[in-house]
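Reading a protein record of the kind used here takes little practice once its layout is understood. The fold follows as a row of integers, each naming the local backbone shape at the matching residue. With these conventions in mind, the following record can be read line by line:

_____
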Amino acid sequence: MEQWIIDTANHYGPLVYLLILGFTFFEGETIVLLTGALISGGDVKLSVTSLMLISVLGSFGGDQTWFYIGRRYGTPLLERWPSMATKMQWAFRLLHKHENMFILSFRFIYGVRNISPFIIGMSGISRRKFAILNLIAAVVWANTFAWGGYFIGRALEMYLGESKIYVLVGLVVIALIIALVNWLRQRNKERNAAKAPNCLDELRREVETCRQQSDDR
């Protein structure tokens, strides 16, 4: 199995980067971390620097896209995610209190990673300000997971040798199980979101107030 993974990665190198670009457009921490760990052994002929740059591009591009979707269609789209109202409201209030720090750190906050640029777009924050802070955050995020995976892989190689691949496969399985559990929990929340309409009304009022007070162009 180890050799198959190595051969596949080496044979389809450009497509691997394209796959990583797609994953990081939406989230992608796990795949960046694991790819960095695989590169660390030297058998996978990919570059950790290229991995980092592709991750920056995917992460920055994805969040810029969600930012503009939130800015253009934000309030009407809230109706489609009633179960997310409470989480969105919490993220919006955190943004309102710590604007710069929230934009720089939301990639590392579990539970609001995907909805944050959408919320930021709704808030009326300057396009230029978000683009600059988002780029800085994407660079920090990509380096953290690409090089973090690389050095974790080196450590696993040192202590586990050829068994490293089994640990990495195990981590993939665990990540998939966690993703499945979170998806099932989200589905359950969507069925039982009795207070969502009130939260949505509050969130709409807060967004409108914030946009009116914004100096955005």
The two ends are 55 Å apart (CA to CA). DSSP finds ten helices and no strands in the chain. Residues 2-213 form one domain.
